[in-house]
Design goal:
7 strands, 3 helices, globular, alpha+beta
Length: 172
Amino acid sequence: MAVRPVVLYPDPVLLEPTREVDEVDDDLRALVADMIETMHAEPGVGLAANQVADRRRVMVIDLSAGEEPGQVKVFVNPRIVEEEGSQAGEEGCLSFPGIFEVITRPMRVRFTAFDLDMNPVEEVAEGFYARAVCHEVDHLDGVVFLERMSPLKRRLALRKIEKLRRRGEWTA
């Protein structure tokens, strides 16, 4: 296992949809182990494969941010199939360090995926879990949370990123 560098916006790997996984092999298992270690090292509550420069459709979520062993969930080829309600809450993103904004997401989602043995999984996520699932599935679809902000908030976030880039603190 290794901590991989997290890709920063506007790296093109973040802006393109990932590709479906056909089979789980040792290489994919190693990627998932690295993703979990990377997510916990940051620390974060979710990570999509393209955030570590891998184009496979895989995400990991740990709402405890590594505080509670055994809470990590791994999803291969996740798809949201149903959304209900609405919630607004502050989000951050490991690919946007230091950028936080209130984003509106569904309150409840039903999604399908596969586990690391390619067994089908169907789950219902509510509240913060739904927010995390939506955020990571967006990443896998090539959508970054900037696109979920109002135009004004997006411009302000982009200005902050540009200021950080000029100071050499944002190296994407």
